[in-house]
Amino acid sequence: IQADPVVGSGLGLSLQGLGSDRVLVLLDGAPLSGRLDGQFDLTRVNPALLSRVEVVDGPQSTLYGSDALGGVVNLITRRDFGRRMELSTQGGSNGQFDQRGRISGGSGLVFGSLDFGHRDADIVPGGLAHDGGRAERWDGMARVTAPMLGGSADLRLFGVNETQRYQLQGMSGPETDTDINKQLDALATLTVGPHGNTDIRIHGSSYDHTFNASTGSATDADRESVGDIEVLQRGSMAAGTWLGGVKIERDALTSARIDGGSKDGWTGAVFGSTEFRVMSRVRLAAGLRYTDSDLWGSNVAPRANILIDGPAGFGLKLGGARGFRSPSFKEQYLDFTNTDFGYTVKGDPSLVPESSWNLTAELGRTVGPRQVYVRAYQNWIDHLIVTQLVDPATFTFQYRNVDKAQTRGLEVGGALTRGIVTASGSYTWLHTEDETTGKPLDGSAAETGRIGVTVTPNALAVTTELIATSHVLYDQPDGSIIGQAAYQRVNLSATWAIGDAHVVAGADNLFNTIPKNAIMFLGRRWYAGLTWGFGW
Fold first, then answer.
1. Can you point out the beta strands (E) in 262-369?
2. Euclidean distance between CA atoms 304 and 284, whole angstroms
3. What is the CA radius of gyration of the chain?
4. Which residues contact 325 (CB under 8 A, 6 or more apart)?
5. pTM score, two decimals?
6. CB 116 within 8 A of CB 142
7. 469: exposed, middle or buried (C-beta count within 10 Å: 0-12, 13-18, 19+)?
8. How does pLDDT run across 382-411, given as a tens digit for each residue?
9. Are 223 and 210 in contact (CB under 8 A)?
10. How many CB atoms lie within 10 A of CB 142?
């Protein structure tokens, strides 16, 4: 898992050497609209709204469909409904100042919560400290759960209004480019059936993006939207469990840069998976998804795993899966000219989906507080979509299915707890290759290592970690390559629960070690905050 700067401004995640444009981002299991050049800015979602984040690497198209070539990041929002009010504030370097409030409670069988927050910072996510940037974000979430039709209904509404102002590298002067992002996401889930084993999910997500260039060029405005209905059925059998589902989805993009001003398409999918025990220590898991689109055709995504529970805490997992990523509207139909750098990117309606095959093997052992593991994987990607120079005279690029690529990696790690001390560490090796050019895929470090120690005396927890990263290569719009040098950083953080209050303080990159040719802000960042809550 590595940070991946998003085009314009923002930050995503790279998984198994595949960038954020090939990692599916979900909010409560539903796809979020709002990708810039195919990439999703995770910082748009306030982490205070979340109860946890689930990350599954490797192709997950069997259950989740397109975009899950590298893996899935599922952001799970809070569902705690006790009669409680919370107020919090946090400040830090680069002008960070956050405020947040939350109220929750219920009456009878109806429960709900309301969250709201505001953030200011003198740096945009994914930018550099000297870029003269500033970001301001308002966000909120409302949730209600109640009994309905013999089951239960959960309604969740999430919204963001964000303004980012930044200077491109190499520019000077007071003028800045401005991004205005507005996100609205609604999800209604009805759980019914004698054992609550049927979910009916109705979901809608819209994203408005406005870009004002510092050069005074015309404003670019895009609107993306996705609406879907999904029915999930769970069940059990003598030796295991199964899951089946159907999904219908409509995607749309409105932009002046598209011929006709807008484009929309329908996608339908049928999928299922099962896990069952064939021997006392051996389980098999398998799944299949069939997807059909009126824009790019059909696709089949199978997967299969064997899981062996060995003696003495050992476990072995062997698996294979096929993933795919359908071409986006922007890759197919949108024409874009960057006046600051003087290049043009054109869409290609003839694009076909990317596809991949993955093999994974993992061996681990867990005995009480001790855990060790080793994991290896290989991905083969076909029809990789890249921008190819088609007219050197006008510096014009076009999206093309021209490449094959592969990524493979090895990870070794472990953790140990003794009393109030927990120590953990990992080392990862990654190889990526564009088989057409022979070059590595940009944006991933070949080696990373981490050592962390957490001490938890009573209500205090102190964590320190050392992270080392090898050099990283990034392609530039003009065809050149920037090499971000290897570097090491130390992070330090502490949390302390005092009655109804929760105090947090820390510093990322404590010694301010900044690599040469840093592609995003990696300098020291300190922060301190207080959360106070009480029942009512």
1. 262-279, 282-293, 297-309, 314-325, 336-338, 343-346, 354-367
2. 8
3. 24
4. 22, 66, 67, 68, 69, 353, 354, 385
5. 0.90
6. no
7. buried
8. 998 888 888 888 888 888 887 789 999 999
9. no
10. 15
